[in-house]
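Risk register update: the risk of archive-format incompatibility is retired. Evidence:
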Amino acid sequence: MGSDGDRSVVRKDEGEVTSWPRGLAGYVPAGSPDQGPPSEEEDRLAQRIRLAARLIDLLRSSGREDPSWERELRAAERAYRERDRARARDVIERLIGVLGTAAGAPGASDPPTR
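Archived output:
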């Protein structure tokens, strides 16, 4: 973008990328391997944990609540903090499946893609 707010031409069906695509559940950073591990904001597992928390809030706001959801979310967060990624991944993927089923999402119980 140049000065005074002039913009380059954007063709039909093309969007202008104005920032990094943060917060996407399937986002994989495309940097070089020597840049180190992705930040928590870019980490897929951290994104899945945030997604589960948002789904719980959404279900709660529509009158559906199950105390086991919160327990599972806390277990995944604890495993993630302790760097037990395999356990955190197992717990959070199972929880997202349960939450999707509770929300009535088609295919919610299908195994996750990696």
